Amino acid sequence: MKRLLVFLLAAIFTAPLFSQVKFGLKVGATTTTVPTYDVSNGDNNIEAVKDAGWGFQAGALLRVGIGSFFVQPEVLFASNTYEYHVETIDATEAVKQQFDRLEIPLLAGMKFGALHINAGPSATILIGTPKALLDDPDFKEMYRSATYGYTAGLGLDLFNRLTVDARYNGSLSKKFGESVSIGEQNFAIDDRQPSFTLSVGILF
What we know:
Number of helices: 3
Number of domains: 1
Strand order of the largest sheet: 1-3-4-5-6-7-8-11
CATH topology: Porin
Number of strands: 11
Strand content: over 45%
Largest sheet: 8 strands, antiparallel, barrel
Helix content: 10-25%
Oligomer: single chain
Structural class: mainly beta
């Protein structure tokens, strides 16, 4: 009887919390700074076709709220493609690099009416291995399976169902990550580039 009473009291007091738990699906577009590679080698040259590239992301989120505060973990599939002109001692060719990733941000936020702000750490898991721009074992080492960064932004919640977010995504690799040397240059081991994301989601 005591256990049943404790269970009922716990259910009563935690019900308001669980009433603020929402599941959601989202999709978005991303504009990303294209990475550049100054290999400082007379036999090789890598030039980005554009300074920025477009990509997309799609996935699921879980929002757990207590009053105006909420925690929001997400699991997203993201993809970006970069284009380069690569000159080697043998040939010149156009090369496309496609990065497919699993992004897992863990955000904390506050709501101010329909407006919300959020920020937090983000982990990225690389899916597959992008095409190496140079036939160099050090170049391939640049693409590690897991890297870490951060996400921050603001958004709107509309009609208790629709959520729209604008976010900046950054990397922590320059300060905390490893690097490899190619030619006379050091490059961070991280495929994550500074990016802006605009997304829309549906909450259930």
